[in-house]
UniProtKB/TrEMBL annotation:
Species this chain originates from: Caballeronia humi
GO-annotated cellular components: cell outer membrane; pore complex
Domain Porin: 8-352
Name under which the protein is recorded: Outer membrane protein, (Porin)
GO terms, biological process: monoatomic ion transmembrane transport
Molecular function via GO: porin activity
Subcellular location: Cell outer membrane
InterPro entries per UniProt: Gram-neg_bact_OMP, Gram_neg_porin_domain, Porin_dom_sf, Porin_Gram-ve, Porin_Neis
Self-association state and partner proteins as the record states: Homotrimer.
Signal peptide per UniProt: 1-20
Length: 380
């Protein structure tokens, strides 16, 4: 009997030690509510085909997701890590990201307290990592606050497959990183590849960041390449079709004073097409602010001006379109994990023949569109 107790005690101690050295965590977000859109065209460009819409919608502020992340202590300040993250539509239970099981993120790697982190898999680029948090959409505002068509990917519409990524440790407030996404094509090293780099400096209440992203030959037809996420048909109409190359770069900063955090950002995205030597250039200018009125209630606002120049494949004339977008949000925390929110976003364009299109909705049949949404979000 005593031997049995001793064996059980020793086994329990080994199990406790193993548990302390490694862990796996289940986590996620579920976000759902009601959304009103004042004008959504059933056929773009048809002035007689538009309607107001009220719907039950998911992912109004943050896309619903669930994931697994884990780590194992390797000693000497090093750990093996992994993340598997799946996106889903809470209104119908369907997988997002073109039906992928782990379409949001899927990577494995090694991290060191002194030297940083190296990971391999499907991951976010440096624009998402460094510039995204400087925007309203990439921090507190969410889906409808994204820049028109998410042309600069600050709202992470596109992920990078086949990628190796490095993120440095924090060196006195300075950190940096980079990513390379392989084409994985025999005899086509540059056939649908991507690379990016970014950096950030944080000193007390002040943060500043810069990043760069370039994709090449995403129109090559290489379905196993770095960029395989698809944009829906609404976005194809503005020319964000697979391009010969895309270059996105920008800089952003924010500053906190007590309960107030405010900031600004500039990004430029250039899309080059191989049909008729056509190209599009987006310049995005954003200012945003968020104020914690009480520990539970936060108010936020953002304004984005987007200037678009160039032409798309099949277009005979050069294009110059300007978008103005204003967003306001109120968020109230019921607990540490659950909050309710209400927000409104309005977008206007002063260009004839162009249609407003708040990200996450179908295009308007006119030059303006208003979205109002309210809902509940739970984190686990």
């Amino acid at each position: 009997m005593k031997k049995t107790l001793i064996v059980a005690a020793v086994s329990a101690s080994f199990a406790t030690a193993a548990s302390a050295q490694s862990s796996v965590t289940l986590y996620g977000i579920v976000d759902a509510g009601f959304t009103y859109v004042n004008n959504e065209a059933t056929a773009q460009g048809d002035a007689n085909s538009h309607n107001a819409t009220v719907r039950l919608s998911g992912g109004n502020v943050e896309d619903s997701r669930w994931g697994l992340k884990g780590q194992e202590d390797l000693g000497r300040g090093m750990k093996a890590i992994f993340t598997l993250e799946s996106g889903f539509d809470v209104t119908n239970g369907r997988s997002q990201q073109d039906g992928r099981i782990f379409g949001r993120q899927a990577f494995v790697g090694v991290t060191s307290n002194d030297f940083g982190t190296v990971t391999l898999g499907r991951q976010y680029d440096s624009v998402v990592d460094y510039l995204g948090p400087m925007t309203a959409s990439g921090s507190w505002g969410g889906t409808f606050f994204a820049h028109p068509f998410d042309n600069d990917n600050t709202y992470h519409t596109v992920r990078v497959n086949n990628s190796v990524k490095y993120q440095s440790a924090n060196y006195g407030g300075f950190s940096f990183g980079g990513l390379y996404g392989f084409s994985n094509a025999a005899g086509g090293f540059a056939s649908n590849r991507a690379y990016s780099a970014g950096m950030q400096y944080a000193n007390g209440p002040f943060k500043i960041a810069a990043a760069y992203l370039q994709t090449q030959n995403t129109n090559s037809g290489n379905a196993g390449g770095a960029i395989t996420d698809t944009l829906d048909a609404n976005h194809l109409s503005v020319g964000l079709v697979p391009s010969q190359s895309q270059r996105t770069y920008g800089v952003g900063a924010n500053y906190s004073v007590g309960a107030l955090t405010f900031g600004g950002l500039w990004t430029q995205s250039r899309f080059q097409y191989d049909l008729g030597d056509s190209a599009l250039r987006f310049n995005n200018y954003e200012v945003n602010a968020r104020y914690n009125l009480t520990p539970a209630l936060a108010l936020g606002g953002a304004y984005t001006y987007t200037d678009v120049k160039g032409s798309v494949p099949g277009s005979r004339n050069s294009d110059h379109t300007q978008y103005h977008q204003i967003g306001l949000q109120a968020d109230y925390a019921l607990s540490k994990r659950t909050d309710i929110y209400a927000e409104g976003v309005a977008q206007f364009t002063n260009s004839d023949g162009r249609y407003a299109n708040v990200y996450g909705t179908a295009p308007s049949s006119s030059g303006n569109q208003v979205v109002v949404t309210t809902g509940i979000r739970h984190r686990f």
